Amino acid sequence: MFKTIFKSVREFKLPAILTLIFIMGEAVIEVFIPAITKDLIDVIQNGGAAVTDILAIGLRLVLMALLSLCCGGIAAVTCAKASAGFARNLRKDMFYKIQEYSFENIDKFSSSSLVTRMTTDVNNAQMSFMMIIRTAIRAPMLLVFSIIMAFREGKELAFAFVVVIPVLVLGLLFVARKAMPAFRSVFRKYDHLNESIEENVRGMRVVKGFSREEYEKAKFGKAADSICRDFTKAERIVALNSPIMQICMYFNLIFLLIVGSKLIIETGGANGISLGSISMMLTYGMQVLMQLMMLSMIYVMLTMSAESFKRIAEVLREESVLTDPENPVTVVQDGSLDFENVSFKYSAKAERYALADINLHIRSGMTVGILGGTGSSKSTLVQLIPRLYDVSTGSVKVGGVDVREYAVESLRNEVAMVLQKNLLFSGTIKENLRWGNENATDEEIREACRLACADEFISSFPDGYDTKIEQGGTNVSGGQKQRLCIARALLKRPKILILDDSTSAVDTRTDAMIRAGFKKFIPETTKIIIAQRVTSVMDADLILMMENGKIAAAGTHSELLANDAIYREIYEQQTKGDEENE
After folding, report:
1. Distance in angstroms (rounded) separating the CA atoms of residues 533 and 557
2. Is there a contact between 307 and 255 (Cβ–Cβ < 8 Å)?
3. Which of the four pLDDT bands, split at 50, 70 and 90, describes residue 271?
4. pLDDT greater than 50 at residue 582
5. Residue 493's closest CA among 524, 514, 456, 534?
6. For the chain: N or C, fewer Cβ within 10 A?
7. pLDDT tens, 228-264?
8. Is this model's pTM higher than 0.85 or not?
9. How far is Cα 400 from Cα 557, in angstroms, rounded to an integer?
10. Cβ proximity of 526 and 496 under 8 Å
11. How many H helices and E strands in the chain?
12. Are strands 367-372 and 355-362 parallel, antiparallel or unpaired?
């Protein structure tokens, strides 16, 4: 897990190593400062020392302090650079990895969970990395060196640590262990919180339309309160660090002052115990206790971050189930399609196939309409063409070649999909349209928009094609959004164009004009139109009737009217409704 994550350090290895070096330098210098302070106190206490001797020791003390400050300052800068760079690379690696996922991989993670992993979890990983390369090195070094120096210089006084250290270590381990479960449960609850926020923001119009603001507030409050309770419980346990620390610190202080003073009075300093020794031991005692405290904080932080590391590693380790073959085909010859004995289910564990026994042959340039009820797997069928999913059995061929033999990028460059849920990105209309062809000229953009019946409403905007689209396209209507997405697909000039119920929000006249534009603009492109209205597909070369994941009937409009009762019923109901509306 850690090996996977720490690969993201990359170019920031040097700042991380420099941090370790300067931190070690700072720790070594800090260990010797109390010994120098002891010499200064002893010289002053004994009297008779020359001012130059006092100044020499004082100057040495100042230089050591300045050197420690410089090492600490440089370490802080390099540590910040290394940890921030590590977090940047981690987010970048996760984002790039997600771009490689197939739909099947994405189905394993919710979008809210991925957002949490790239924000909260990465922040925790950054903090842990910072503590590892800085505090996790400094604290053990200072702890060990301080104990060694204390026993070397303090003799009997150093035995105070024999009592204090075990008590503090056991106490802090107890605190950290109790806090672990609460911290671990928090991150799963963050996913639910972000999911509530995401749903509310995306569905704001629905929430307001049904006056469900209070319900959404209650749902959000429940998720937030749950996180608050877990954090409060964990922080309440961690807060015990302070009183344990205080008890040990004051015990150490009292022990050193009582025992040290008694030894000085009884022996007059003959045993090597002096006022300077007591001062030094108090400093070392404080250092030891503080480093133990820091180690306990590191332990708690790493415990809390372990779940974050695990969640990040899951994203980085996830391999796309769709990979290019060893020697992929990179050229799609034409838009012909062949479904040969195709069956498909979304999961190997699923009991039921979403598609079963599909055999279908479509010549390049044909227009194919697909009708069927909700849940008949119309969208699933077309998602196999650009290899958003792989078939479970059988094969799908494009241009006479199995889609699994193509380089995924080459295949998808020749297939344009206008999905059921149309999506526009933040930016201008022109920037959104150039997703279809980043090198499209202004004239090509306008021509595609005219064919998609979008040019008229775009021209009515004050800024025309430079009009800003808000996130999710909330400042355009559903029909306008659909027409912009169709224009974007036309700019791609694909060999296969798939419209997944993409004209449902436009009127029948505009729908007919768009289909007429297809024949003029992309006559050689295979066009697959999923629709709910018979009028959207009645002039197609082939119409498929889908039912329960199978092709129930296939033929032209006239053939289906004559031979398929369901198609005839749908046609009569819809045309009768249109006549009554007129």
Report:
1. 13
2. no
3. low
4. no
5. 524
6. C
7. 887 787 778 777 777 877 787 777 777 777 777 776 6
8. no
9. 27
10. yes
11. 21, 12
12. unpaired
Distance CA 100, CA 323 (A): 9
Which of helix, strand or coil describes residue 273?
Answer: coil
Among residues 379, 361, 357, 359, the alpha carbon closest in space to that of 370 is found at 379
Quote the CA–CA distance of 126 and 383 in Å, as a whole number. Answer: 39
Q: Which amino acid is at 463?
A: D
DSSP letter, residue 226: H
Q: Tell me which H or E stretch contains 496.
A: strand 496-500
Report the distance separating Cα 394 and Cα 341, nearest Å.
5
Q: What is the pLDDT of residues 47-58, one digit of tens each?
A: 656 677 778 888
Amino acid identity of 381?
Answer: L
CB 482 within 8 A of CB 444: no
pLDDT digit string (tens) for 119-145?
888 998 998 899 888 887 888 888 888
The C-alpha atoms of residue 506 and residue 500 are separated, in whole angstroms, by: 14
Please classify residue 569 by burial: count the beta carbons closer than 10 Å to its beta carbon, then call 0-12 exposed, 13-18 middle and 19+ buried.
exposed
What 3-state class would DSSP assign to 331? coil
Residue that is written with structure tokens 């100057």 in the block: 59
First-to-last alpha carbon distance for the chain, in angstroms, is: 66
Q: What share of the chain is helix, strand, coil (3-state, %, to 5)?
A: 65, 10, 20
Length of the chain: 582
In Å, what is the CA distance from 575 to each residue of 341, 446, 572? 35, 34, 5
Handedness of CA 175, 181, 184, 189 (dihedral sign): negative
281-283-289 Cα angle (round to 5): 100
Confidence of residue 267 (pLDDT cuts 50, 70, 90): low
Backbone angles phi, psi at 330, to 5 degrees: -115, -5
Rounded to the nearest 5°, which phi and psi values hold at 424?
A: -115, 150
For residue 351, CA distances in Å to 196, 388, 535 come to 31, 21, 36
Read off the DSSP letter of residue 321: S
Q: How far apart are CA 179 and CA 239, in angstroms?
A: 10
424: three-class secondary structure by DSSP = coil
What are the two backbone dihedrals, phi and then psi, of residue 499, each rounded to the nearest 5 degrees?
-110, 110
